[in-house]
Specification:
Strand order of the largest sheet: 2-1-5-3-4
CATH architecture of the largest domain: Orthogonal Bundle
Cofactor: [3Fe-4S] cluster; [4Fe-4S] cluster; [2Fe-2S] cluster
EC number: 1.3.5.1
Distance between the termini: 48 Å
Helix content: 10-25%
Family: Belongs to the succinate dehydrogenase/fumarate reductase iron-sulfur protein family.
Number of helices: 6
Strand content: 15-25%
Radius of gyration: 19 Å
Largest sheet: 5 strands, mixed
Order of helices and strands: EEHEEEEEHHHHH
CATH superfamily of the largest domain: Alpha-helical ferredoxin
Pfam family, one: Fer2_3
Pathway: Carbohydrate metabolism; tricarboxylic acid cycle; fumarate from succinate (bacterial route): step 1/1
Bound molecules: iron/sulfur cluster, FE2/S2 (inorganic) cluster
Length: 218
């Protein structure tokens, strides 16, 4: 056991106040950030708000920023002195919880699902190899926090998660829309000189999604 200080950026929607609070917590070797948060919640402060679900890197619910980088809390080792904050570039609801609806709205407004409605199960069709590398996306929206261009209020730019979704649709043999044209309309050309996207699951967003939408397949 080691006593660690954990700094947490908190937000109170009732007062609009933001503050950083430091908690002292006992950490075991190999404890994750999520285990540290649960211990703080149970032993120090039950008003702390954060999300989690599967505890095994499958649901994406626990995504947050650790020292400024998007991470899954359940898959990141906790350390003394770490700073936890909600995903930037997205509106905060309370403490470490951000508002997913800011991105959810784009999925319906941009029709980011197979069009026309599914005719065949994908399992019966062959898909390009790149599809298999992208389909592991958890839809956690963590990558949106790594993008210097994305702003949830600006609908003219899709952002990394939207480009991953468009790339998956482009590679899906059932989809009949022109997803490359849609990506261009959502500003993918602005990515030409950038490679800042980071995925919490290690998906190569710049190469496998954006590069493919830009016609830069390697
Ligand atoms: S390449 Fe850069 S600008 Fe484009 S989505 Fe990724 S981080 Fe954002
Ligand atoms: S690409 Fe990665 S970071 Fe972005 S939503 Fe999917 S799993 Fe999350
Ligand atoms: S709790 Fe499900 S991915 Fe972390």
């Amino acid at each position: 056991m080691q006593t660690a200080n954990v700094h947490i950026e908190r937000y109170d929607p009732e007062s609009g106040a933001c503050r950083t609070e430091t908690y002292s917590v006992e950490l075991k070797e190999n404890d994750t950030v999520l285990q540290a948060l649960l211990r703080i919640y149970e032993e120090r402060d039950s008003t702390l708000a954060f999300r989690h679900g599967c505890r095994g890197s499958r649901c994406g619910q626990c995504v947050l920023q650790v020292d400024g980088m998007p991470r899954l809390a359940c898959a990141t080792r906790a350390r003394d002195g770490m700073t936890l904050s909600p995903l930037k570039n997205l509106p905060s609801l309370r403490d470490l919880i951000f508002d997913r609806s800011a991105v959810d709205r784009r999925i319906s407004s941009q029709r980011l699902y197979v069009m026309p409605p599914i005719q065949a199960a994908l399992g019966e069709l062959s898909v390009p190899e790149a599809y298999g590398r992208l389909i592991g996306c958890l839809e956690c929206y963590g990558c949106m926090a790594s993008c210097p261009r994305f702003d949830w209020r600006d609908e003219s730019f899709g952002g990394p998660y939207v480009f991953v979704r468009l790339a998956l649709l482009h590679l899906d043999p059932r989809d009949q829309e022109d997803r490359r044209a849609q990506a261009r309309a959502l500003g993918v050309d602005e990515c030409a000189g950038c490679s800042a996207c980071r995925c919490v699951k290690g998906i190569a967003i710049r190469r496998d999604a954006i590069g493919m939408l830009l016609g830069q397949e390697s």
